[in-house]
Amino acid sequence: MSAEDAPNTLDFSAIIASSVHDMKNSIQLLLGTLDEVIDELPGGTPAHARILRAEAEGRRVNDHLVQLLTLYKLGNTQQGLCPEEHDVAEFLEELYIENREVLALRNIELVIDCDDYLQWFFDRELLKGVVNNLITNAQQYTKDKILLSAAVDEKRLLLTVDDNGPGYPEAMQKRYGATKDITPRDNTANTGGTGLGLFFSATIVHMHTNRNQRGYLQTSNDGIDGGARCSISLP
Amino acid sequence: MGLWTLKNKKILVVDDFAEMRSMLRSMLRAYGAEEIKQASNGEDAVEAIANHKFDIILCDYNLGEGKDGQQVLEESKLRGILPLATTFIMVTAENTSTMVMGALEYQPDAYLSKPVTKLTLQTRLKKILEKKEFTKEISLAIDKKEYGKAARLCDQEMANHPALRLELLGTRYNLLITTGDYEAAETVCKQVLVDRDVPWAQLGLARVYFAQQKYDEAKALLEEIIADNGDFIAAYDLLSKTQKKLGDPETAEQTLARAIEKSPKSLMRQRQLGELATINGNFGVAERARRDAMLIGKHSVLKQPDDYVNYSHILVKNNKGKEALRIAGNIKNAFKGDSDARLQAEICTSTVFQELGNDTRAQEAMDAALALYQSSGAIGSSSAGLALAKNCLKYGREEEADAIIKEVARNNHENEAVLNEINQTYEAAGLGDRAEEKIAEAINEVAQINNEGVQLINEGKIAESIGLFKKAASALPHNHVISLNTAHSYILLMKKEGASKKHLDEAMHYLNAIKDVDDASIKRGELMKNCREIAQQAGLS
Known about the structure:
Strand content of chain B: under 5%
CATH class of the domain at 10-134 in chain B: Alpha Beta
Radius of gyration of chain A: 19 Å
Largest interface: A-B, 45 and 43 residues
Shape of chain B: globular
Strand order of the largest sheet of chain B: 2-1-3-4-5
Distance between the termini of chain B: 44 Å
Distance between the termini of chain A: 49 Å
Number of helices of chain A: 6
Radius of gyration of chain B: 26 Å
Order of helices and strands of chain A: HHEHEEHEEHHEEEE
CATH superfamily of the largest domain in chain A: Histidine kinase-like ATPase, C-terminal domain
Largest sheet of chain B: 5 strands, parallel
Structural class of chain A: alpha+beta
Oligomer: heterodimer
CATH architecture of the domain at 10-134 in chain B: 3-Layer(aba) Sandwich
Mean pLDDT of chain B: 91
Low-confidence stretches of chain A: 1-5
CATH topology of the domain at 10-134 in chain B: Rossmann fold
CATH class of the largest domain in chain A: Alpha Beta
Low-confidence stretches of chain B: none
Number of domains of chain A: 2
């Protein structure tokens, strides 16, 4: 008897769905509790800083969970995304609020540049994971500043994450080039880490389509003072 | 925490998990909220919504057993207990985009992904409430059914807040559909679809085609939408309806089965599948769908005696007589104090016993049903009427059968499907000739009322024609032609004597009563257009 018609076959997707629900609830309680502790601790103390870091890690666990689940689902159902209209300024503000304090601990300033009430179409939760990836990446190389900006040009949304670090190494610039977009297959680069972040980011950005156009993920050294720039362009 | 505060906001928190509720409550309290109610399941949530007016509802999508968050939203909207001014936020652990596509018609004001932290709650809630404030006047106008005013406010706000353009166009579309202005609704959809395939506008356009009875266009568009996005559940539902209209119930059933696979928890969808599968003779599928419809409806106010009756009938067909009797017996308990349900229960029991060959018990139930019918004077649905008539014919109560069939025929004098069933009912009893006679009688009676009414109008006696049609409409509440004519008389009266709010409301009342009758959609659209024009000219919109 094959595994498929065995009577007690595990329904893996059902298990994933229900455990993700539980895990999300746990993360919710974890972060909520840390929130309460942060409120009780005086700011500027080492304990306060440690809890902030713990909270940031909690959010990263959540981001990774979302990424894994998304990729799993995409692999199984071949379903496309259906982006909804969102307020871009509000989206960036949310990213700002979540990252600002923990970046400040490392003396990195996070700055936002976006018109109020700018609207665009994207999958909010997934794109948040993508931009968080880019911020995590930028904080490793930047000197002391990260700029998050968004604008609409030629019927596309351009979202950029700039830093004022040394910029991408020449070899990487050659590989990806300033104009070529990064595809999910580019993840084998020796970038350190698992490569999941980049793979996920490129996949999600590419899946943002409208009519015959799709999203692009690009890198260049057009950041602050020749620093790195990673940009997402969505149709 | 700045000036932003939730003080004076009435808030409902719905989550099956006590710790989650208390966490959300403490977050809300941190922003000044004082009046926070909570519910731990969907049933309690709906009850709370029915009994209190909330400013904000934070509802988790996953609520364990029973209703989920989407069903709470749908039921509240369908029951009209959730004012548009209330902000409904769905909290979810899953990716929201599939959720959006699964429930396009009943969307919350926003989705909030878990984890919800204090700071994200503030940023999101602030923006959501701000937006809601911009559209508050529009919501109030719609809640008060002041559609003309709402439409003007939409245009105003669109100029003031370009960011709300798409949302306001969505509202505008809904208003146009409500007032039957299909051409303008079509224009709005096409305007939205220039730059992007926005789901509500795609579906909206298909809806317009369907209402205009352009079924081929609707079908082509819906097939294209589904090919692009397989999760678009509402598109399957409408495609299935369209395929049925085009005379292809087999494909209609397949389409609906695909939707059910993705989203099984819908009462309406299971009812539809049960009906299609029965037509197609797929009694296994029909039994499952009828059972699921009954189970889903159990804790919902949307349940109907028919859900039990249909399930019971299909059980009999599948040789599960004992179970069928049990289900028929459950009707009275499920609808305590509902006299129509008692009648349905007796009819159903009688039919099941008859099928099982127990003539004594079948006749007992039939007698009980006839007694109930005679005291109330209303038979309810045409299927219930025909079922009772069949039993009467079987047990030699021809006089009663004729009377019931006549009532059914008069209420459905233009409904081919029902008239066919009447034919079959008499034929099965060996009284084929009588069908024609009874149907002709019914059609004549209705035609006579219509002719008399029209003649009164021609003689300028419009008030008299209204009186005649209104009387006929209350005797034949399901006859959409009479409803249309009643509305028409009011319109003529206003054209003659000038518009008044009272007469406009009367006309709209009769037109709204038949908003789900597909066959009347075109004529209804024309009369609604008349009403709009009259209202506009008189400054009443």
